[in-house]
Amino acid sequence: MPPKVEPPISQSALAQAIRLSTSWAGVLRKLGRDVGAANYRQVQRAATEWELDTSHFTGQGWASCPVEAADTSFTAKSDERNLHRASAALATAWFLLRGYMVSIPVEQARYDLVVESDAGLARVQVKSTITRDRNRWIVNISRQRYDKGVTQNANGARIRSVYQPGEVDLFFIVTGDASQYLIPLTATNGVMKPTLDAKYAAYKVA
Questions:
Q1: What angle do CA 77, 124, 174 make, to 5 degrees?
Q2: Which of 188, 158, 189, 190 is nearest to 173 (CA)?
């Protein structure tokens, strides 16, 4: 099959393509040419000869020319208000990337994930927080339980309590700045809202 012969480039067409692009790859696409080294050299030589301004390009050379942003259907920015919904997926990805298989309980359970570990299966409760106090994250790791002996409120006869040994083994915590902690239940010392300060630094995993 004979090689494709590209038509000559006009100065006006090249000038317009350069003006509307931020990279040589973008120029080639606007000219309807294959993005390849030969075409790149051709348009660069022509631009140099005609003294066309490319100072607005964001790349330097062929290898570093960025692919221009494509139009997509996803324009929303990351929002920390969605952290609660995303935290279980982030925890799952953390374990899977390290080769540990993750299971999700079929029925409602005190834990969110069952994860393989070097010491066997571990029950993991996933928590997230966007609450700060003096630049330190505070996370609520309590649970609600039913207590018929208390005065009912808007939640009924439900009170906050700590998780007990045998209910969960680990907390996977995701904070508003995307930091991640893997904290054993035993390290929380029965605190319902621990502050993630220096004493938890050793448990920060990302």
A1: 25
A2: 188
The domains of the chain, with CATH numbers, are 1-75 (no CATH), 80-203 (3.40.1350.10)
Crossing angle for the helix pair 11-19 and 37-49, nearest 10 degrees?
100
d(Cα 174, Cα 177) in Å, to the nearest integer? 8
pLDDT digits (tens, 9 = 90+) for 26-78: 888 888 888 777 777 888 888 888 888 888 887 544 444 444 555 667 778 88
How far, in Å, CA of 121 to CA of 116, rounded? Answer: 5
From the number of C-beta atoms within 10 Å of its C-beta (0-12, 13-18, 19+), residue 139 rates as buried
Q: How many Å separate Cα 150 from the centre of its chain? A: 42
> What confidence tens digit (pLDDT) does each residue in 110-160 have?
999 999 999 999 999 999 999 998 889 999 998 876 555 545 565 555 667
Contact criterion met (CB below 8 Å) for 55 and 19:
no
